Amino acid sequence: MKRLWMKLACGLMGAYLLMVPAAQGQQVPSGKSFDLIEWNGGKFIYGADYYPEAWDESQWEKDATLMQEAGFNFVRMGEFAWVKMEPQEGHYDFAWLDRALKVLNAHGIRAVLGTPTASPPAWLYAKYPDIAAMDAQGVRYRYGSRRNYCLHNPDFVAATTRIVTAMAEHFKDHPGVLGWQIDNEVGGPKCYDPASQTAFQAWCQRKYQTLEALNAAWGTVFWGHTYHAWGEIPLPWNTLYNTSNPSLALDFDRFWSDSTHAYVDVQTAILRKIAPRQAITHNEMGMYSEVDYHDLNRSLDFVAWDNYPMGHEDYSQYFRQGLAHDLMRGSKDNQNFMIMEQEGGLPGWATFGGRQAAPGLYRVWAYQSVAHGADGICYFRWRTSRYGTEQYWEGILDQDSYRNSRYFVVSQTGKELGQLTPMLEGSKVVSPVAMLVSPDSRWALQIQPGVEDFQYERQLHDYYDAFRRAGVSVDVAFPPSDLANYRLVVAPALYVTDPTLVNKLTAFVKNGGTLILTFRSGVKDEHNVVTDKTLPGPFADITGVAIHEFDPQINEEQEIVGPGESSFPARTWSDILDPSTANVLATYGKGYYSGKPAVTENHAGKGLVYYVGTESKSPFFYDRLISLAAQKSRVALNAKIPPGVEVAVRQKAGKKIIFVLNYTSTDQTVPLDQAYQNALTGKTEALEVQIPAYGVKVLTTP
Length: 702
Ligand code: GAL
Hints:
Helix 9 (246-274) packs across helix 14. The protein is an alpha/beta fold. The model is unreliable at 1-19 and 21-34 (pLDDT under 50). The protein is globular. Helix 2 (60-69) links the parallel strand 3 and strand 4 (74-77). The termini are far apart. It has 18 helices and 28 strands. Strands 12, 13, 14, 15, 16, 17, 18, 19, 20, 21 and 22 form an eleven-stranded mixed sheet that branches. The chain binds beta-D-galactopyranose. The site of beta-D-galactopyranose has 8 residues, from loops.
């Protein structure tokens, strides 16, 4: 059987398909450090995404001049220009890109080049129609958009290898090329074609070794889904009623992430070999869930991501971008990162995505990126396209190249960041609190949310926003990261666990840490199989509670009484807690389980564990809860930050750099713990910092 399978797989798809590593597979080790541009005595990248191929060459010199005036030292180019670089199979033309680089370099502007694989040429689809991805219903996508290739297709991988090799050979010694962005926003669409099925079966074989092990892990006894040959294993294509085995579906999500990583590694391996002096990154997507970025980033030199607040005037959106920044930072173990696409104008495709943001907001958003750890900002895009799908997605300039208000705001921001760069260099975000984000739990909860209104991201925000409202920095940790340096860890909906993770959290608590766990934790093992222990399963000991009953789908009919005197609306779910050693902090207020515990606190070893059996729509519930937990774990909160203002801190060698960001249309007063110096003016600010509408102040300890 095994021989037959190997013959089939190798014969049909070639060796590449068998290479997709299972979770703990081979990684290309991370290379050199972030080779940033020296700028004004420090290191910071500042620029825009530029598409010289779409403009007459006579425009390039004017563009470079305007960029230089705006303080740019950087552009990203080339990520959709495959057909321009390889107009016919095996015939390459990089002369136009050389000319563009020459013009830009003469103005002190260097480049990261995108490998263009997100948008393969029409001739490639015509010659190899199967390079297009297939959806779960078995329909192949057709040429005419972008990002619809199938990364398991050997012809596509071969074409990728050729173009990346040719680019690397051509630009490897170019002094104006800083490095590489692989592809563009990898991750989807998932491909369900025969090549992908074969690759998945090979991945399963690598992971489980024997079909007995796989059948036992997935519980294939259910509905008689037991497999007797690797070739029988299906893909989770029953998306209509979501009836695929959730264990298989979770492994497929892991496989897809691994496949994406393997495809990126096809490119990193070429670049590292041919162009070892140039750095490698990718433009990631913040909270996007199809790829385990923590895993992927082991192959990249530094993290870059695409930051789109989407023109929001609603100031609460700053939490959304903040968490995404922190997750991106956490995905490379808290190394600083860069923004490869920072919103530089109003987003939109067929329609504009909202109202035009006040020009000052573009500056606030750029500073927010820096405050959360960005050492580089590249705006999307230099100028709005005249052509194609993104005619309504604004760049800094519009099609007429008029120096509009966005251009002047971007220029001002560039000049200020140039001034701040020596101070910023080497500074980092240091957080007392970590939020554990588990890709496995997130995928498993997408497969089976349990209740319709369950949203993993919302649970993250319930807690994250409360800490940020109080000016507390939060790191995002991915299992099984080291948690020893944190005082407090929040691990919302830790639905899928494994012994390593449980041991890590238990040790963290026993050594004196404070842990917040929430409903639906400890429900599943690593194979997405429900535990046969009383919930919260592996956390029963440290939480000091048992859950014998729960009430899903409660929406807002339930009430949380406490902590303290207040009561709050509950939603989504009620775990009815049965404490063994835990103290009760809040109870339910309504219905047949009125008076039963909803929130508990338990001493375990030298530490403390909070268990929150429900969710609330009220931010005050979370403010209350985290203030209890913060007090017990010696995390200082600032309760006086006005709504719509963010206070974020970077630190180096005992020096604090404090960013006060006003997302609102009104002037604000922000009381701080001491008087700080304004890093741009050198003047000492009042203890109560005055900050204008859409204003930014960067303060520092003298
Ligand atoms: C990003 C993408 C860019 C551009 C932008 C605006 O996600 O990387 O190429 O499409 O969105 O739509």
